[in-house]
Design goal:
The structure holds 2 protein chains of 2 kinds.
Chain A (H helix, E strand, L loop, with lengths): L1 H13 L2 H22 L1 H4 L3 H34 L2 H6 L4 H31 L5 H29 L3 H16 L11 H10 L1 H13 L13 H17 L13
Chain B lengths: L1 H25 L4 E4 L3 E5 L3 E9 L10 E8 L8 H4 L4 E3 L8 E9 L4 E10 L5 E2 L3 E6 L6 H25 L3
Classes of the chains: A mainly alpha, B alpha+beta.
Chain lengths: 254, 172
């Protein structure tokens, strides 16, 4: 697993794609931070709300980047014709998946590292920076693991890389969709249930409750149940079940 | 005979006017007043005030709904009251004759300028609106915009240089 992870990390970061994605991510965070600091339309927000905005974008886009790399992991190798040589190496397929999973997650770690100075800039004067970074890291890591493992499962099963990326992106957008619901639709037991079972909305809601509403980090921990379950179940699927479906031709999806 | 008719007509008029008077008492509208009439604040700050809704009539009022609204005196300022408060509608309990109820409101000033915040009560005939809270909201900067520029430019530049450096070093 360590060998695969090392090789994958080298390919991701030293082949340029990792830094290119990190660059694009930093441009996005720069725009948001600068707007929060200069635009009056955003500037009315309390500083904690600005911190929350930047942190939620960092968590959402950071997890998206990790998902995209994972969705390319197996289907990409298959399409580039390099999967056969990988399968010929004396290595367990679970180790192959685990190594690729870790490499994809490195993009999430990189994204959070990039987000730190932005969150610190927006939140240090109100003492919200340290707490926000810690909460973003913990809650966001659960979400990133869940989404990365999901991307890996899809990549293993998909018949082509295009299908893998399309399915992963579609599911991610579907998970983000409830964040756009009007406030009224998010209230009531049905609305709250929808937000709680969806790992993306549950993570973002938890971050908002701690950063903006200043709840103690233990008070709303139940919101992290779905990201936690997602991380555990999807990682187990990716590492224990998906390896059985690694074939030179694509699996069930598409 | 004529006198009797005049008396009957006068009696009828008395009964009708008495009925009209009692009808007016039944239709008494609630009175709305505000705990504050003027406020000066700055954008992003919360405003707290109370509206007092009274039943001046002689019969109970029920099914009353109080609704808060915000409007700008400046035609160039677009106000979305939803941004000021997500709880702008209150369903009031029945009000006995002569009783009143205090309804507390908390809104966040999200537009700068000269604005009016007012409460309307519905449910007893035509809507009744109380006096408006005259709000002068000053704009303010909460974050040092100058400090944002080096950060917003510096980090992408560093990562861009790293991306280019890595690409150049990549073995072909």
């Amino acid at each position: 697993m360590a060998v695969v992870a090392r090789q994958e990390l080298r390919d991701l970061w030293l082949a340029g794609r990792g830094f290119l994605l990190a660059f694009a991510f930093s441009v996005l965070l720069s725009a948001i931070t600068y707007l929060a600091a200069t635009n009056e339309a955003l500037n009315f927000l309390e500083r904690r709300e600005s911190v929350n905005l930047a942190l939620q974008v960092a968590v959402a886009v950071g997890a998206l980047l990790a998902l995209l790399v994972a969705a390319d992991a197996i289907s990409g190798e298959r399409e580039r014709g390099t999967l056969e040589s990988l399968l010929l190496t004396p290595m367990a397929r679970a180790s192959l998946i685990s190594g690729k999973l870790l490499a994809a997650l490195s993009l999430w770690v990189g994204a959070m590292a990039i987000a730190v100075p932005y969150v610190w800039f927006l939140g240090h004067q109100v003492g919200a920076a340290g707490e926000a970074i810690l909460i973003g890291l913990v809650a966001g890591t659960l979400l990133a693991i869940a989404l990365t493992a999901f991307g890996m499962v899809v990549s293993t099963l998909a018949r082509s890389n295009r299908i893998s990326l399309s399915v992963s992106l579609f599911v991610l957008l579907a998970l983000f969709a409830p964040t756009q619901l009007p406030t009224g639709a998010q209230q009531g037991w049905a609305g709250e249930l929808l937000l709680r079972v969806n790992p993306v909305t549950a993570t973002l809601r938890y971050i908002g409750k701690v950063v903006v509403d200043q709840h103690a980090w233990t008070r709303d921990l139940s919101w992290l149940l779905s990201p936690l379950l997602g991380a555990v179940v999807l990682t187990a699927l990716a590492v224990a079940v998906a390896p059985r479906f690694i074939t030179l031709r694509g699996g069930a999806l598409g | 005979m004529k006198t009797g008719r005049v008396h009957a007509l006068a009696g009828l008029l008395l009964v009708v006017s008495a009925m009209a008077a009692s009808g007016a008492a039944r239709a008494a509208s609630p009175e709305v007043s505000m705990s504050r009439t003027h406020v000066a604040t700055s954008i992003g700050e919360e405003l707290r005030f109370t509206s007092l809704i009274a039943n001046p009539g002689s019969t109970p009022l029920s099914g009353l709904v109080a609704h808060l609204d915000v409007v700008s005196w400046d035609r160039d300022v677009y106000v979305d009251p939803e941004d000021w408060s997500s709880e702008r509608t209150r369903y009031l309990p029945p009000l006995a004759p002569g009783r009143s109820i205090e309804v507390p409101w908390t809104v966040k000033a999200v537009n700068s300028g000269h604005l009016a915040v007012y409460v309307t009560v519905l449910g007893a005939g035509p809507p009744d609106t109380g006096p408006a809270l005259d709000a002068r909201v000053a704009s303010r900067t909460t974050i040092d915009a100058g400090g944002a520029l080096p950060l917003a430019v510096g980090i992408p530049v560093l990562l861009g240089i790293a991306a280019i450096g890595v690409r150049r070093r990549r073995p072909r």
